[in-house]
Amino acid sequence: MLIANVKSILIGFAQDEQRLSSALAYGLALAAHARAHVTIQALSLRVNAPYSPIGDIASTLAAAENKRRHATAEAVVEKARQDALALGVPCTADAPQLPYDELTFAFATWARVHDFTVLDADSELLSLTEGVLHQALFESGRPVIVVPRTADRFACKRMLVAWDGSAKAARAVNDALPFLRAADGVEIVSVAGEKDLSRSIPGADLAPQLERHGVEVVVKNMVAQDGDVAEALRQEAHAFGADMIVMGAFVHSRLRELMFGGVTRSMLGQSSIPLFLSH
To answer: pTM surpassing 0.85?
Structure first.
């Protein structure tokens, strides 16, 4: 399965000694399928020493911790280079270490010069991974694939499109066309429950557009039980055997730095299937 028109992939992960990155394994496998170049960023926070009345002890400890973190990230990067080489994937890899705001901002700028970004899912609010995801989605102008901990093998034989007729959903579908074209089966799902879809363009009108691009689709309309759209999407994705869910990403405008929209947040926290997100 060749994923056409994908030439460059950015993989980012927060260096965590307690958890291996699913995004790294997934992204390398995807790059091999697409015959794409991959850029790997093992991200680590720089510790800043607080003011200490006892002189340089805090600064010394902070410098030692930063050195340890950087050495760990460099070891992971070197292993990733060897894995990419074994797969025949051209690779550029680095282990940037910066303060939180600088690191998340820099990653979003790197994402702008790649076709899309691959990141780990993380349900912890305000974690480094969460911050990187926010910046990549809302400041890079590029789509993001979010990989849950249980999914480190790339596949896109069956794709589910979460369609609500919004501009964000339309953007996600267009961005995901290389994957949709490569799929054996694509289902467009519209779930009523969280908002009124009666005035939105239906999935049945999206289907001909995708078929013109060589994508065969089926269309399904659902009503969410108790208004839980995210749970309805998860259940349908599992029933369909989806390898990936394509959807637009929403955020609460007044809490942009802190909170995704309800369905987006629920999918990020509980989906066992990779999410292809655009904003």
So the answer is: yes
